[in-house]
Amino acid sequence: MPQFYQEGAYSGTVIEQGFGESKEKKTPFFFLKVKVEATEDGQPVDKQYERTVTRYITETTVEYLAEDLKALGFQWNDSFSDLHPLNPKHHSFVGQSIPLYCKWEGEYERWQISRPLGGGQQVDQLGSAEMRKLDNMFGKAMKGGAPAASKPVAARQSQPVAAGNIGDDDLPF
Question: Max Cα separation, the chain?
Fold first, then answer.
């Protein structure tokens, strides 16, 4: 298959949404059909092809679908029918510009919703004391590009230990 899109982040507009099931295993899935419009930095793509984002719904994958939908601003109410176009009151993504990611798997593109890594988890920033400690430990290695030199470990002489007199310093781990 010719490679139309390079692996990376894009944006596109949803042109269709719905539910289906796989042909062989009959696994249900939710899909968004999109028109790919721009690269991550907002540059228009050369050709705007339609692609489909498919998220299979199983016991082990349903959380990923929930995270994708949350990243698109959808808040779960009661039922999957809240997303089904046959429901007159469904939440429609059609016309919405969404973040996408194209990944190559062998000869095929695999499209997915692009969302923050780690689910947007809170990260506690290091303070100035911790930063100084990092500089002291690894600053020279970063500056010179060489790994930090480790201090030589003094050779310990093995001494016989009487039964029952084993301390923490005598254990090899």
Answer: 83
Secondary structure (DSSP) of the chain: ----S-SEEEEEEEEEEEEEE-TTT--EEEEEEEEEEEETTSPBPSS--EEEEEEE--TTTHHHHHHHHHHTT----S-GGGG-TTSTTPPP-TT-EEEEEEEEETTEEEEEE---GGGG---PPP-HHHHHHHHHHHHHHHHHSSPPPPPPPPPPPP----TT---GGGS--
Q: Which two tokens stand for residue 121?
A: 């988890």
pLDDT in tens, 131-165: 777 778 776 766 565 454 555 555 545 555 555 55
CA atoms of 133 and 141, how far apart (whole Å): 14
- According to the model, what pLDDT value does residue 152 have? 52
Residue 127 has pLDDT above 90, yes or no: no
In this structure, whether the domain defined by 8-116 belongs to CATH 2.40.50 is answered with yes
Per the CB < 8 A criterion, the answer to whether 92 and 15 are in contact is no
First-to-final CA distance of the chain:
54
β-partners of residue 56 are 29
Residue partners of 6: CB distance under 8 A and separation at least 6: 102
